[in-house]
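Please review this one.

:::
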Amino acid sequence: MALDSNTFQLTFHPRPDSAGLLTDLKDRRGSVLYTRRRVACTTSRGGYAFELIDPLSDSLLASLSAPSLSAKRKALKLHSPDEETVLAWSGVFNFEWTFEWEGHRFDWRKELFGGYNCNVLRKPDPSVAVCLFKTAGHHRPAALQIMDYNITRFDISDRKGLELVLLLSLFTFLDMADADVGVSSPTTPAAEPAKPLPPPPPGGPREEEVVAWEEDGSNELEVRPNVPVSAHVERCLRLLETNLFITLLASSAPAVPLAIASAEASKRAWLKGPGRGEELQQYVVEPDLKGRGRINLDDGGPNKKEYQPPERITIYLSKIPLPELQSKPLPSSSLSPSTAPPRPAFSQHPTPPTATPSPGSCAGAPPSGNGNGNGSGSRVEAKASTKASALLGGLMGHLGSKGGRTGKA
């Protein structure tokens, strides 16, 4: 998110003759409104503290104190009138600090490529941004933008006190960043002039690409090999706060394992977040899946091809199910030939039909026909059978008339 030239801004100017102990905060006209002063702790255990003073009257406006710079709870105190609040660490994997002011909960987050932003939490409604800090560039100092038009939407009477609390919180973040990189000066290195930035790594994103990634309002995240997993996870969680689903795009082979690791870490971080409790749905789409074929898991063979990871991949993380991205079963036509019903072990020829004897033929007579497929032989055989029957009947009648019984007692 870029700074708005129409809003109230404060620029950070360390005093070169103060050994990093004093930093002036100026408005657009160049007038010094606040001065930040580091305080040496007098206790034997040491400690961490600094103050915000009025440059005109040198009066104390606000102060911050903690047992150490790395303490997870820091006391913020405002003077004239006195008011106290606590800045507490509330993150799990990502950078997140919170404080309360007049019944509202404020949340500090770290930007992906430097810088910080603070929002008013309104769960379950989206959060509202109240300030944005950008680190120094080649020709501009570090700047803090306070969004008064958003602050007026809430019932906050002491807006000046809120502005001081935001400045106290921001300075401790800058000091913590200096300690992480081993800088002895308590001021932020981004505010130091005349120190050129190192060139980007080979193949890394150009400056305009980085700005486009920060300011792009879409739900897509391009995974880049030169960006750590933690930065991708932080960006995914930010996008999931305002979107139902997000898309991780890996367009090169080195970015594929980074995208998978970022998706898994984002799912764990989202599940462990406060007030969530629902696991994200994950869908993986590989554009080159059709051309790669099925993976053979059988061992062996000198001609076996090694598995090659995909060169690009798309991962969807969603709060709701996406049926159109679920894997579909294979169609029936894609079954292998081995699943077809088996053929019979031998050829089965149909049984020839049995011939029906004619009414005038004997029951034991052979089927009609000569076996050659014509009917001339059957007619001859029928006539012969009729003659034989007639002769046999006459012979039996003749024998019965001569020597047979008459049927009388």
